[in-house]
Amino acid sequence: MQKIVATAALLVSTAIAAPVATQADPGEAAFRALYKELVETNTTLSVGDCTKAATQVAARLKAAGFPDSDLHVLVAPEHPREGNLVAVLPGKNPKLKPILMLAHIDVVEAKREDWTRDPFTLIEENGVFYGRGVSDDKAQAAIYSDTMIRLKSQPQLKRTVKLALTCGEESAGALNGAEWLAKNHRALIDAEFAMNEGGGGRLKPDGTPESLSMQVGEKHYQDFIIQTINPGGHSSRPEPANAIYSLASALKSVQGHSFPVVLNDTTRGFFQQMAATTPDPGMAAAMKAIAANPADAAAAAKLSTDPSWSAMLRTTCVATMANAGHAPNALPQRAAANINCRIIPGETVEGTKAALVAAINDPAVTVTALPTRNSVAKQPPMTERVMKPARELGVKHFGKVPFIPTMSTGATDGPFLAAAGIPVYGVPGMLHYAEGSRAHGLNENIPVASVMKGRAYLYNLLKAYANE
């Protein structure tokens, strides 16, 4: 795949004047302007333009003093609206590996008629930002971009710092910018490790911090099709062999199958820390027990009553779609269902398929793995090099709250960089209430204070990593 490289000199030659700051932090007004511009630049796959958003950020970096040689807007010719930005801030010691900040700038589709407010206007009401992407992932993209601008006027850090704003994270089947960069520009994004989305933290109902989380690894998304085929016939002459009945039996087998408990450093630490914050004494005891002994069947059974805890314990597979038959007056000739699995790091697609085949135990039912967006993610090491600065700065910015390692049961762009040899961590910083931010849904939002506190925390965290 060829590339088109457009430097900021080809994009915008005039400096972007920052608004006059009225906040206590003189840089907050400029950050708000950057954040607003990102949110209000539509970057959906259908009609949006990531290249435009990448170009706008490049212009702001150029205005801050970045030379053209350190700004790279990278666009695959076949995808002119799905561009990416890589910016480089050289460090004092070229022998030290860089730190990479990774954020995606594309967003999920949003229809104005469904939303209470215009999804592509940044709206602030009662201490909350509203708009598509205000949380996922333009808050982090704006903070990282703002961090680069702030660092440009500061004394040079020991390590080189890099920023990668990518397109395609939210769109299955589209060009994925992180994957494309890893395959076509590996040297440009090379880093000791990457700071990514996926971490965060939780707020109490009163708005005070409850916990911080660092994502260390994620499950692998994998769909399987289970299917049975039959000659069929006239429905007036039923036969024992029936494709729908066979599929129903297979689905019941999948429903009844529980994958074994598999803990790693991340999930073991997760349950150890969660035990201290869980109000249910029985659940807290089960968390302590499973962390000490993953083979504790009673603890596993107790935790498995909660879907969230169960998903952290093991690979999960669940039926999500079904299709069968071709006419109401005919015996079905085909019956099929989609089984969506989330695979624990360290396990494989092939092993998961074998477990499904064994659970179904019917040679008439086939199990087929569908293509997926990435290979099974490599679990990054839970090293103190990454965890200690994040934990210590967490105390400074948020107080003495639990610092919890987590394994995402969803998906980020992390696996693409991990496959290229760059460990990826979902860093803390922006906290949400228990109900979340409505990311991907209607009226996506995030507390203003979460964004501003996250901005301060992530700026200092990056400096801590780059100055070690």
Notes on the protein architecture:
There is one protein chain. The protein has 468 residues and is an alpha+beta fold. 33% of the residues lie in helices and 21% in strands. The protein has 13 helices and 19 strands. It has helices spanning 28-39, 50-63, 138-152, 177-184, 243-256, 265-275, 281-292, 297-303, 307-313, 349-360, 384-398, 414-419, 448-467, and strands spanning 4-6, 71-75, 84-89, 99-104, 123-125, 128-130, 161-166, 193-196, 200-203, 209-218, 220-229, 233-234, 316-324, 330-331, 334-343, 365-369, 403-408, 424-426, 445-447. Strands 1-2-3-7-4-8-18 form a 7-stranded mixed β-sheet. A hairpin with a 5-residue loop joins strand 9 and strand 10 (209-218). Helix 1 (28-39) packs across helix 3 (138-152), helix 6 (265-275) runs antiparallel to helix 7 and helix 7 packs across helix 8 (297-303). The radius of gyration is 24 Å and the shape is globular. Mean pLDDT is 93; it is low at 1-23.
